[in-house]
Write a structure and sequence with these properties.
Radius of gyration: 27 Å
Structural class: alpha+beta
Distance between the termini: 40 Å
Largest sheet: 8 strands, antiparallel
CATH class of the largest domain: Mainly Beta
Helix content: 10-25%
Low-confidence stretches: 5-16, 34-44, 301-318
Shape: elongated
CATH architecture of the largest domain: Sandwich
Bound molecules: 2-acetamido-2-deoxy-beta-D-glucopyranose, calcium ion
Order of helices and strands: HHEEEEEEEEEEEEEEEEHEH
Number of strands: 17
Length: about 350
């Protein structure tokens, strides 16, 4: 394409015929028409149909066998109550902790977890807490102070924090959703709502909704994307999107919740795990993915990270437009050069005619 273009430009600048100039203009306008389509082919987060649901990592109504069958793929602990309609991690009572954990380690390299949840209670504005955490961790069923799970965990956590502990952090509104990746060395600081260790986050109105509320976590090719669907519009809204995230296979999915002096019902309606069909290089496939140490390579403004080769599977609309504008500028540059070159060439020839 580039070769073809330079050839046409070269011949057009020599201005041997006007038809070549016409061909050039036609070619350039074709480019301009085709380019926006090229930048828009990247898919968005799955709607849950196109990809593959993995039943062994999914928690789906009516939660058959949980707590009664030894072959059940989910264990629960603490205040957790399993009914046929929801899994209640905590009731709307003080000082409760509960969790539910997948018993099957996940060996998918690329996955997407859709969580339907419901946080509701009688507490009025700012008088409710503490929230839910969704886990993908090395260990399971280790109760502790981080939304009912252990501190110094190893793996990924998503916090749906409904109570503001840090009164200095007034720049963000609560409930607040944030992500944290830990190799076991970092503590979660409740007093600061995890601000020191968070990779990204967003505010979202998730309490006492009459409609269904959802969260999606996608991990693929080093990129962690979190989307929320909490406004009853049936569409995903981006909350977190960062590259350079390394997570191993063989960890466990789980959910936990806690109440303190303030409380809420913290319910999980479903957790649906989808395998993503993603190609990996033979080099990547030959690695032992269970040995990967959880880490994040870009802690500073990870949202700006678009050059990371491990994390660019999904071009954001902004990136697409940047590329488009860049190419547009390049094309305009070529057109200007061609016209200027042609004019200069013609002037010279006229001068040549005059003097010889
Ligand atoms: C764990 O993470 C911290 C920072 O997040 C890092 O300084 C440390 O080297 C890591 N430890 C291991 C064993 O990877
Ligand atoms: Ca909090």
């Amino acid at each position: 394409m580039v070769l073809e273009m330079t050839r046409i430009v070269e011949s057009a600048t020599s201005l041997q015929s006007a038809s070549k100039m016409k061909r050039l203009i036609k070619f350039l306008s074709t480019c301009l028409l085709v380019l926006p389509h090229l930048t828009l082919v990247h898919g968005d987060i799955t709607d849950g149909n196109a990809e593959h649901l993995k039943r062994e990592h999914s928690l789906i109504k009516p939660y058959q066998g949980i707590g009664t069958s030894p072959s059940s793929q989910w264990d629960f602990w603490g205040s957790t109550l399993v009914t046929s309609q929801y899994v209640r991690l905590t009731p709307d009572e003080k000082s409760k902790q509960g969790s539910i954990w997948n018993t099957v380690p996940c060996f998918q390299k690329d996955w997407e977890m859709h969580v339907q949840f419901k946080v509701h209670g009688s507490g009025k504005k700012n008088l409710h807490g503490d929230g839910i955490a969704i886990w993908y961790t090395k260990e399971r069923l280790h109760p502790g102070p981080v939304f009912g799970n252990q501190d110094h965990f190893v793996g990924l956590a998503l916090f749906l924090d409904t109570f503001r502990n840090d009164l200095h952090g007034m720049d963000r509104s609560f409930p607040y959703i944030s992500a944290m990746v830990n190799n076991g060395t970092q503590p979660y600081d409740h007093g600061k709502d995890g601000r020191n260790s968070e990779l990204g986050g967003c505010s979202a109105e998730i309490r006492n909704k009459d409609h269904d509320t959802y969260l999606a976590i996608r991990y693929s090719k080093g990129r962690l994307t979190v989307m929320v669907d909490v406004d009853d519009k049936n569409e995903w809204k981006e909350c977190i999107d960062i590259g350079g995230v390394r997570l191993p296979t063989g960890y466990y999915f789980g959910a936990s919740a806690a109440t303190g002096d303030l409380s809420d019902h913290h319910d999980i309606i479903s957790m649906k795990m989808y395998q993503l069909m993603v190609e990996h290089t033979t080099e990547e496939d030959s690695l032992d993915w269970t040995k990967i140490e959880p880490s994040v390579s870009l802690l500073k403004s990870p949202k700006d990270n678009i050059d990371d080769p491990t994390g660019n599977f999904r071009s954001t609309p902004l990136t697409g437009w940047k590329v488009f504008l860049l190419l547009l500028c390049a094309l305009l540059g070529i057109v200007v050069c061609a016209v200027v070159g042609a004019v200069v060439f013609q002037k010279r020839q006229e001068r040549n005619k005059r003097f010889y």
